[in-house]
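In response to the reviewer comment on reproducibility (Comment 2.3), we provide here a single inverse folding case reported in full, input and output, so that an independent group could reproduce the run without further information from us. The structure tokens appear first.
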């Protein structure tokens, strides 16, 4: 599975961005999908995940109520709507497929895409 994230950019605090992760090579309907981020000097951290059919989602506490993960299996794409952005959301955001509905990068996450940079200015 090849994953390509897009939609990042520079935005002011309080603004919004919508990230997309387009998959090729295999249908993502077979996988749980997750978004992770890595800020400067920080370790990769979980952001959000969604089950295969989209019926269940989970979020990091830091983004709960501000970010929404969704998927369109017909388009083989997963999305991350980010609202009320804060400077601490600045990071490279990456998507990944998983065989498990997990918040841990090493727990079932098997294919990773190149990330997209999100920069939030204060």
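Designed residues, in position order:
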């Amino acid at each position: 599975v090849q994953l390509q994230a897009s939609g990042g950019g520079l935005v002011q605090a309080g603004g919004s961005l919508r990230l997309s992760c387009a998959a090729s090579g295999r249908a993502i309907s077979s996988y749980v999908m997750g978004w992770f981020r890595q800020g400067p000097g920080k370790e990769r951290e979980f952001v959000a995940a969604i089950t295969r059919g989209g019926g269940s989602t989970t979020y990091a506490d830091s983004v709960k109520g501000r970010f929404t993960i969704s998927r369109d299996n017909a388009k083989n794409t997963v999305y991350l709507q980010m609202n009320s952005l804060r400077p601490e959301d600045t990071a490279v955001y990456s998507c990944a497929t998983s065989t498990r509905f997990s918040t841990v990068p090493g727990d079932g996450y098997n294919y990773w895409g190149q990330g997209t940079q999100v920069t939030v200015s204060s």
